[in-house]
Write a structure and sequence with these properties.
By secondary structure, the protein is α+β, with helices and mostly antiparallel strands. It contains 16 helices and 16 strands. It has 3 domains: about 290 residues, no CATH class; about 110 residues, no CATH class; about 60 residues, Arc Repressor Mutant, subunit A. Helix 8 packs across helix 10.
Length: about 475
């Protein structure tokens, strides 16, 4: 029997505000445990929270980028549940009247366009963090409340996702959008971007949804895809064996490659939501939305389309170069100085990104600025250095921060274009390789590549390839 999965995602993004959602405590990461807390974020008696306006604006910017409708009158509510890292015994969130609703994003999956609906975007405060210390003699759990009260934005998709691959692509798309507009640093290793997934299966052709299981707290794209692939297989196998799916919350065990049951899944009424009595409703005027909409930067899809049109780049190149706002800016700053856009794209996608990956840094920490890269490419264009020599020059530029001109001059890397000097090297190679020359004359013309390599080796890669190719071909014709 054939089944299809139905997936809905809940993306939790920590907002990049300087202070928490309802108090003035710092949101800086990796502070000493319990050093960034106050009576408000701990929910001590007699305190009054105040909504962080910047967090509301970041939520609205995200909603606009996701084509959502901003709700003009939205309220905060208390979501009641007990957990050791929740000092109030409730979480301040939004329920019946969230910040925004009914948006969408467009995905490209295997060459096909698919629209994924956004059910809602709402704001809430984050919980604390449990730290577990297990040893032979002692098992202890500590609570760090620094994260308590940090502004959290939740983006809830419609159940419009029908594969683990599409779920991953959807989350990557949201990550790119949030990073572009600067509302979240999207650092999944630090927990500032997390994902829960609701997964059910049904027979192909059916409209009714199956019983769902929620897979919690996946903090990497790879984990998300692997967890969903496993969970889909698990549910199919359960039904095929005559069992039934129960509504529950499950955790992804990366070491074992399986999801494991955590608890039965709560319903909304289990949380006993009611309006937060200490916070007034957030009234969103139309003028506020209009002012914010004017601050939205060019989003990834728009930039990608423009790169294809303006710079005549292939879709693949445009996709890579616009994968982050900073990388796109780097390319455009180079493009102002060097107009061979495809050549520029190749170098950025090849040598530059390779070096960054090896060093484990992003483009913001690149030691080769756009002017230096553009000037090096001009040296290739002018015939001063070859493409092969340029790779050596680039490595030195990346390592030392020196300019291409200074490196080429200091190391004597200028390309040899003098025909007599190149002919002298060619004659030496011909003399040293009589068998290869004879094979070439006998019709094995592909062996010329070997001879070219020998010339380049003797010239330390400095012989101009175009001049070399013509001179060597002419010289071989003259051989008896």
């Amino acid at each position: 029997m054939t089944y299809e999965p139905v997936i809905g995602l809940e993306i939790h993004a920590q907002l990049t505000t300087q202070s928490k959602m309802f108090c003035g405590c710092s949101t800086k990461f990796e502070q000493a445990p319990n050093s960034s807390i106050c009576p408000v974020c701990l929910g001590l008696p007699g305190v009054l929270p105040v909504v962080n306006k910047k967090a509301v604006e970041y939520g609205m910017l995200t909603a606009l980028a996701l084509n959502c409708r901003i709700v003009p009158h939205n309220i905060f509510a208390r979501k009641n549940y007990f957990y050791p890292d929740l000092p109030k015994g409730y979480q301040v969130s939004q329920y019946e009247q969230p910040l925004a609703q009914k948006g969408f994003v467009q995905l490209e999956i295997n060459g096909r366009s698919q629209r994924i609906g956004i059910n809602r975007v709402h704001l809430e405060e984050d919980a604390g963090k449990l730290l577990h210390q297990n040893s032979k003699d002692n098992k202890v759990s500590w609570v760090d409340f620094n994260r308590t009260g940090i502004p959290l934005m939740e983006i809830v998709s419609e159940p419009d996702i029908f594969s683990a691959e599409a779920a991953k692509a959807f989350m990557v798309k949201l990550r790119d959008i949030m990073a572009y507009i600067g509302v979240c640093d999207c650092n999944m290793e630090e927990g500032s971007l997390r994902c829960d997934a609701n997964v059910s299966i049904r027979r192909v052709g059916e409209k009714e949804l199956g019983v769902k299981a929620e897979v919690k707290n996946m903090n990497s794209f790879r984990f998300l895809q692997r967890a969903l692939e496993y969970e889909i297989e698990r549910q199919v196998a359960e039904l095929e064996a005559g069992g039934r799916i129960i509504q529950e919350t499950r955790l992804w065990d990366e070491a074992k490659g399986i999801t494991v049951s955590m608890r039965s899944k709560e319903e909304a009424h289990d949380y006993r939501y009611f309006p937060e009595p200490d916070l007034v409703p957030v009234m969103v005027e139309e003028g506020w939305v209009e002012r914010l909409s004017k601050t939205l930067p060019e989003l990834p899809d728009e930039k990608r389309t423009r790169f294809i049109s303006q710079y005549q780049l292939p879709a693949y190149d445009a996709g890579v170069l616009t994968s982050s706002r900073e990388l796109a800016d780097y390319f455009e700053n180079c493009a102002k100085l060097f107009a061979e856009y495809k050549m520029l794209s190749n170098w950025i996608m090849g040598e530059l990104l390779r070096e960054l990956k090896q060093q484990g840094v992003d483009i913001k920490r690149c030691p080769v600025n756009p002017e230096n890269l553009a000037n090096m490419l001009k040296l290739i264009q002018q015939g001063v250095i070859s493409g092969k020599i340029a790779k050596q020059v680039f490595e030195e530029m990346y390592r030392t921060g020196a300019t291409a001109q200074d490196i080429v001059k200091a190391k004597g890397l200028e390309q040899i274009t003098d025909t007599q000097q190149i002919l002298s090297i060619i004659d030496q190679v011909i003399q040293q390789n009589p068998d290869s020359v004879a094979a070439y004359k006998a019709g094995k013309t592909r062996i010329i590549g070997f001879l070219i390599g020998q010339v380049m080796q003797l010239s330390r890669g400095k012989a101009n390839p175009q001049v070399l190719n013509k001179l060597l071909a002419d010289r071989l014709k003259d051989q008896k």
